[in-house]
Amino acid sequence: MTSLQMRAVATFVRLAYKPRMATAERGRARVAAPKGPSGPPAKLRRRHEVSTRRIGGFECHTVAPRGRTAERAAVYLHGGAYVGEISPQHRALVSRMADAGVRVEVPSYGLAPQHTYREAYPFVTAVYRELVAGFGADAVTLAGDSAGGGLAFGLARTLGESGLPQPRRLVLIAPWLDLTISNPGVPAVEARDPWLSSAGLHEAAAAWAGGDDPTDPRLSPLNGPLAGLAPIDVYVGTRDICLPDCLLLRDRAAAEGASVQLTVCEGAVHVYPLIPAPEGRAAARAIVRDVATGPAAPRPREGADPAR
């Protein structure tokens, strides 16, 4: 049964956020809006060891546990339709990971329309490369929500091209898997989604693609093969426009022999593990527990087919 808190959140976001991207015109205005700050706030710095460095012209923020050595690490890619900066809800989950002893790298990838995926991929690949060099891939989780979930998934698919191993696990929170939003199941779910609208998302997608084909797997990673990827955990609510593609990812994984564990939360809104409701808190606890203490992912035997 959907909690009262989740219902209240759904009402709030329908009033406060749904109008922002409800039409193409409003979507274009959202894309063109000035970007806010992305640096870690003082509250996060007081609680954790926080540092910032530049890689290829973009900032990456490290949030590490204070007073202890991290044995696990994660790259967290925030959502925001590729046009919005990191939010307090993202930082809260990052902080919980650091509380659990995880070193978290938070790349401030460039946002559209000033930047596109063509700049994001080299940047986040470099961040991942540095982290794997320090911890080993079996100790690293690649995570993200919404647009950041799509970028995390796309990054995982390109790691082999960069000579890098898969992480121990992928954690995707309501990932944006297909920029075209063309799944035939979308309209029925969109009618129930109190937050997101395809009209505005199409404008953000076009800006992020920068004139390139939005079906390219680097933009719409659902279009690429799944063989050889790390095990994937996906969290999505039933009132989330991302649900149909998450279901399709599960079905494709079953057909291709990939490992996808899908958690669908009844009545939950977009990126529900970031929401201060019982369903969100329970999902966040599960995510943090797995990132901090979950078993290492099994690796293919030498000479084995990685898709099996």
Task: Compose a concise summary of this entry.
The protein has 308 residues and is an alpha/beta fold. The chain is 38% helix and 16% strand.
Model description:
It is a single chain. This protein is of the alpha/beta class and 308 residues long. It has one domain (4-293): 3-Layer(aba) Sandwich (Rossmann fold), CATH 3.40.50.1820. Helix content is 38%, strand content 16%. It is built from ten helices and eight strands. It has an eight-stranded mixed sheet with strand order 1-2-4-3-5-6-7-8, with helices on both faces. β3 (72-77), α4 (88-99) and β4 form a beta-alpha-beta unit. α2 (24-32) crosses α8 (198-209).
How much helix, percentage-wise, in residues? 25-40%
Major β-sheet strand ordering = 1-2-4-3-5-6-7-8
- Kindly provide the name of the CATH class: Alpha Beta
Order of helices and strands: HHHEEEHEHEHEHHEHEH
Q: Determine the number of helices (DSSP H or I, runs of at least 4 residues).
A: 10
CATH architecture: 3-Layer(aba) Sandwich
Beta percentage is: 15-25%
Radius of gyration: 18 Å
* Low-confidence sequence ranges: 299-308
What is the topology?
Layout: H1 4-16, H2 24-32, H3 42-47, E1 49-55, E2 58-64, E3 72-77, H4 88-99, E4 102-107, H5 117-135, E5 140-145, H6 147-158, E6 169-173, H7 186-190, H8 198-209, E7 232-237, H9 243-256, E8 260-265, H10 278-293
Parallel strand pairs: 3-4, 3-5, 5-6, 6-7, 7-8
Antiparallel strand pairs: 1-2, 2-4
Helix pairs in contact: 2-8
